[in-house]
């Protein structure tokens, strides 16, 4: 039986659902439900919903079953969400299916990023065995604004091609979604340069995309964070104050 047809195991399951509301001039975590080890460590009640993670997501070697992660974000009219997790590390031999989607209504706004490391470069480990299936989707009022799917395998065209990773071990995408993407936002994203690796930015109707490829997850996050700091006040209408957990 081909590896991709190996039946999925029941495995270790976890679920986290969060609901935010505007109350008395601040955003509060009004509803939460969890199953398994996924929990909120510390709600800080900012002016907008800003979500991050306490550390890198790690995907370990698998003898066959595929591990799956799904993130779904719904942003109502007049609201804004930032989903800025720390990097995802795919260990040698891992088999991952990672997807996220954002459903926006009306004038809702979103800033999100995704940084993926193939292997542990700091330990000299390469991603010479394993698979990543990834999917991302942003819609506004039910209409697609950006859809992307990828299948990444060692030695595959995407990793080796100059149009893909060109042999790099880290890739990242940052998404800014708003009713309109103005020229200044695009210019800001294009003017930013990572300390290591390559970057680019482009604009679609209602979506700004910033890309990174290189060999450093730290450089990728620093690059996206620099763009975020420059754009946050105009996109999210609040000051760019980084969470302390990014520095731990």
Question: Which secondary structure elements does this structure contain, and how are they paired or packed?
Answer:
Elements: E1 15-23, E2 26-35, E3 49-51, E4 57-59, E5 67-75, E6 80-83, E7 88-90, E8 95-104, E9 109-118, E10 131-140, E11 143-152, H1 157-160, E12 170-177, H2 183-191, E13 198-204, E14 207-214, H3 217-236
Parallel strand pairs: 3-6, 4-7, 5-8, 6-9, 7-9, 8-10
Antiparallel strand pairs: 1-2, 9-12, 10-11, 12-14, 13-14
The overall pLDDT, averaged over residues, is: 89
Shape assignment: globular
Number of strands: 14
First CA to last CA: what distance? 44 Å
Oligomeric state of the chains present here = single chain
User: Rg to the nearest angstrom?
Assistant: 18 Å
| Series of H and E elements | EEEEEEEEEEEHEHEEH
pLDDT < 50 runs, ≥5 residues: 1-9
Fill in the keyword field for this structure.
248 residues; 2 domains; single chain; mainly beta
Description:
With 248 residues, this protein is mostly beta strands. The chain has helices at residues 157-160, 183-191, 217-236, and strands spanning 15-23, 26-35, 49-51, 57-59, 67-75, 80-83, 88-90, 95-104, 109-118, 131-140, 143-152, 170-177, 198-204, 207-214. It has 2 domains: 15-45, no CATH class; 50-247, no CATH class. A hairpin with a 2-residue loop joins β13 (198-204) and β14. It is globular, with a radius of gyration of 18 Å.
């Amino acid at each position: 039986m081909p590896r991709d047809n190996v039946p999925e195991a029941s495995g270790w399951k976890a679920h986290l659902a969060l609901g935010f509301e505007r109350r008395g001039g601040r955003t509060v975590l009004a509803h939460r439900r969890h199953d398994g080890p996924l929990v909120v460590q510390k709600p800080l009640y900012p002016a907008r919903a800003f979500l991050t993670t306490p550390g890198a997501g790690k995907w370990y070697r698998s003898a066959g079953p595929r591990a799956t992660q799904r993130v779904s974000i719904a942003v109502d009219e007049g609201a804004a969400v930032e989903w800025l997790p720390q990097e995802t590390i795919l260990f040698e031999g891992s088999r991952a299916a990672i997807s996220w989607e954002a459903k926006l209504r009306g004038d809702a706004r979103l800033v999100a990023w995704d940084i993926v490391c193939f292997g542990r470069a700091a330990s000299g480990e390469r991603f010479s065995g394993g698979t990543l299936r990834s999917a991302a989707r942003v819609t506004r009022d039910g209409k697609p604004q950006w859809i992307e799917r990828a299948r990444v395998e060692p030695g595959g065209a995407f990793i080796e091609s100059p149009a893909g990773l060109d042999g790099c071990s880290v890739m990242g995408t940052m998404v800014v979604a708003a009713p309109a993407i103005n020229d200044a936002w695009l210019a800001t994203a294009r003017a930013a340069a990572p300390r290591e690796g390559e970057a680019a930015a482009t604009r679609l109707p209602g979506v700004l995309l910033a890309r990174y490829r290189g060999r450093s997850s730290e450089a990728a996050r620093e690059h996206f964070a620099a763009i975020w700091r420059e754009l946050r006040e105009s996109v999210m209408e609040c000051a760019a104050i980084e969470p302390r957990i990014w520095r731990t």
